Prior knowledge:
- The chain has 3 helices and 5 strands, in the order βαααββββ.
- Strands 1-3-4-5-2 form a 5-stranded antiparallel beta sheet, covered by helices on one side.
- β4 and β5 form a beta hairpin.
- The chain starts with 7 loop residues before the first strand and ends with a strand.
Amino acid sequence: MKTYPRERFSSEVTLTPAVVADYARAVGDDNPVHHDPAFAASTRYGRLIASGTHTTALLLGLTASHFSRRGSMVGLEFWVRFRRPVYADETIRLEWLVIKVTPNAKLRGDIVELRGRVRAQDGQTAVGARGRVLVTDQL
Length: 139
């Protein structure tokens, strides 16, 4: 299956306070806003929020899952912008749009340019992203 401009792919993920806290601790993010409900309640957020690395990892992981179904894929570069918090008790939608596909003979594959986002449960964009990946028959 060939990658093409305007191709879209997405998935939904339901976060829980336990998953958010476990992820933060696993990656060494000791910020109590991710695992201490009493502390989080006293912040501007009012409750636990997911780590930015957590939401970003989910979004980037979706590219790997999607493109590796049709061959091999490796990330080349990604940029993210955090726009609003993702709460530890919401269902988020991870979305990507293929912007451009450029064959690259030297790398024996296609350079795929993407735009993505994490949509919070209220439909607002919580994280905006851009990226470039290599999709190839074999790494």
